[in-house]
Write a structure and sequence with these properties.
Layout (H helix, E strand, L loop, with lengths): L13 E3 L4 E4 L7 E9 L5 E7 L5 E5 L4 E7 L4 E11 L5 E13 L33 E6 L3 E2 L13 E8 L4 E9 L7 E11 L7 E8 L8 E3 L4 E3 L3 E5 L4 E8 L7 E3 L6 E5 L17 E2 L1 E7 L5 E7 L1 H4 L16 H8 L9 E7 L13 H10 L4 E7 L2 H6 L4 H19 L3 E5 L12 H19 L5 E3 L1 H5 L22 H21 L5
Parallel strand pairs: 2-8, 23-24, 23-25, 25-26, 26-27
Antiparallel strand pairs: 1-3, 3-6, 4-7, 5-6, 7-8, 9-22, 10-19, 11-18, 11-20, 12-16, 12-17, 12-22, 13-14, 13-15, 13-18, 19-21
Length: 526
């Protein structure tokens, strides 16, 4: 169980719940399951208070000596979180918070259909059997992704994308023996034509160069070419192409006709290479055209084990890694906090089966900004990710910077709640990140600071009450202790709003430590 105050002896405390998952089998609301739960290893100097996040589903009534009566209603499927707060009787100081999720799943028993007497009318012709769709037998997990939005004309480097090859370098986060690619034409108003595509290992000395011994052809339903209609996407066939965690791969795509409205991610912070003609099998490409954008390529998935999951990081420019590609680091430095998180995952037995998908967009906000508003892209970028297991929700600083009144606290947190509910309904564990200080940046006003503090208070309260699985307190992590008004610590400060490389590193390490601790206490199972 997660404890948010470390004191001597606190690790010995355990919340004993015999059953946490209940099945309702055509039950009514009158059917209830009752049992006694207890905080084990409680001392005579400690007391316990109990709470339930969903009293209609799971009610808890405190008893003596750390015990409580748990009553679970089997009338409706749902979840509730039971929280036991252990305090010192004398000082009333919090010792540890123990949490347990109670789940009621719906598994109705089918009933026999009523017998219908034969009709004297002419029987309706039996419809032709619909062919069973092909079911992909593979278990896929996203190992790389980027949040797509429409490019400005100035984002397209000459000589353009039509009849040109783009070699895009991406870094995966979870290894495997087989991968697949997804291309998106979401914002196009005409067809996108892919004439040929390959994947290969880039050489470490020159990224435009590839090792031809590793080159694999990409196909779509057996064909090397495909036309993606306006608003559509295409998923490749399985590619026998082994990758390791944090490997870089070169995806070379030869485009034919290209919509004038290009779907891309314009802050790749990694070089792509662009040249006219079909260059997908060439060892090298010219370096005179080097955009730092990803075009049409939206996801790379890997065949994995059923226990493997992805961590989707949903945010704005701080998640997108603003500033990590500037001097002295430059593109291809991979210094975002999400990169630091991905670097650490393979080092721990509990997290080595996880991947990281960065769904940040610079200048994006919940209600607007660059790209689709976060509230509108959330389903696409998080809920629809294949086998996502965890969400880091860290967005809203631009909304705070645009705020016009304290009412914006409610507007922002209201959308947070919608996102959290959607993720939980999908079985995704949610970690929320507080908004870091920005005094010294143009966003700062006294009103905006009040809004930021209000949003952060809501996030901390949401975690304390068991409404999310984890809290990443980036505010406290990056704060200069003596600052008034609050500001980024000098060692972490880039421009008053964004962290520098050291700040991103600290954020990534905090994210890893917090998620790893949670998973060790709540292991991923198949």
């Amino acid at each position: 169980m997660a404890g948010n105050v470390k004191v001597e002896g606190a690790k010995k405390l355990k919340l004993n719940v015999k059953t946490t998952k209940y099945t309702r089998t055509n039950q009514t609301s009158k059917v209830k399951k009752k049992q006694t739960i207890q905080v084990k290893n409680l001392t005579s100097k400690q007391k316990v208070s109990w709470k339930s996040s969903n009293k209609k589903l799971a009610a808890v009534k405190a008893g003596k000596k750390g015990k409580a009566k748990l009553t679970v209603s089997l009338g409706k499927a749902g979840t509730a979180r039971i929280t036991a707060t252990v305090k010192n009787k004398k000082t009333n100081k919090k010792v540890k918070v123990l949490k347990q999720k109670i789940t009621v799943v719906n598994r109705a028993v089918p009933t026999k259909p009523p017998v219908t007497p034969p009709s004297k009318e002419t029987p309706t012709p039996t419809p032709k059997e619909t062919p069973t769709p092909t079911i992909d037998p593979h278990y896929w997990v996203g190992t790389w992704g980027s949040s797509q939005y429409q490019a400005n004309p100035t984002d397209i480097r000459r000589p353009g994308l039509k009849d040109a090859t783009v070699r895009q370098i991406v870094r995966v986060s979870l290894g495997g023996e087989q991968i697949r690619l997804t291309y998106s034409n979401q914002f196009g108003k005409s067809d996108l034509e892919i004439k040929a595509a390959t994947v290969a290992n880039p050489t470490m000395d020159k990224f435009p160069n590839i090792k031809t011994s590793t080159l694999k052809t990409v196909t779509f339903r057996g064909s090397e070419s495909i036309t993606i209609p306006a608003g559509g996407k295409a998923v490749s066939d399985v590619i026998e192409y082994p990758v390791n965690a944090v490997d870089k791969i070169a995806v070379s795509t030869y485009f034919g006709e290209v919509p004038s409205e290009v779907t891309h991610h314009g802050a790749a912070r990694a070089y792509s290479y662009q040249q006219l003609g079909n260059q997908v099998r060439n060892i090298t490409m010219g370096q005179e055209v080097r955009p730092t954008s990803w075009y049409f390529l939206s996801n790379v998935d890997v065949v994995a084990n059923p226990s493997n999951k992805s961590i989707v990081c949903f945010g704005d420019s701080i998640t997108d890694g603003y500033g990590t590609d500037t001097s002295p680091n430059g593109p291809d430095s991979y210094l975002r906090w999400t990169d630091i998180l991905a670097n650490n995952l393979p080092s721990d037995e509990a997290t080595k089966g996880l991947s990281v998908i960065n769904m940040g967009i610079g200048a994006n906000s919940i209600f607007g900004g660059q790209g689709p508003p976060a509230k509108d892209r959330f389903d696409r970028d998080v809920i629809e990710q294949v086998n996502a297991g965890y969400l880091v929700l860290q967005i809203g600083v631009n909304d705070v910077g645009y705020a016009g009144s304290l009412n914006d606290v409610t507007r922002i947190t209201g959308e947070y709640q919608i996102m959290i509910d959607k993720a939980h309904a999908k079985g995704i564990k949610v970690f929320v990140g507080t908004l870091s200080p920005f005094h010294g940046n143009g966003y700062y006003t006294e009103l905006h600071e009040e809004v930021r503090q209000g949003v952060n208070a809501w996030l901390r309260d949401k975690y304390e009450k068991g409404g999310v699985e984890g809290l990443l307190d980036f505010d406290q992590l990056l704060l200069r202790p003596d600052s008034n008004p609050p500001a980024l610590a000098g060692a972490y400060n880039n421009d008053g709003l964004h962290p520098n490389a050291a700040g991103y590193k600290a954020m990534g390490e905090l994210a890893f430590d917090t998620i790893a601790e949670y998973i060790k206490e709540n292991p991923v199972t198949e």
